[in-house]
Design a protein that fits this description.
90 residues, 5-stranded antiparallel sheet
Amino acid sequence: MDENILILEDENGNPCEFMVINVYEFNGATYFAMVEVIEGSAEESDEVVIMRVDGVDGDAELVMIEDENELQAAFDEFLRLEAAEYEEEE
């Protein structure tokens, strides 16, 4: 199995595959940026999902970010990191 793929459950308990595209620290929390893998296809969705790690070590879990301001700030940081990585490659 690809180490960048996570299987998460949707709100109905159905498994969904996500490819992790970035894991980063921001404002004292760890965030995962992922895209959903489209079933039966080699493609991924173009919608980035940002989730936060809650808990510590063995009790850690990925959670949806309920606070719109935190979600926007975490997404902005993801975009900043992606832009900086793109500039380094050029």
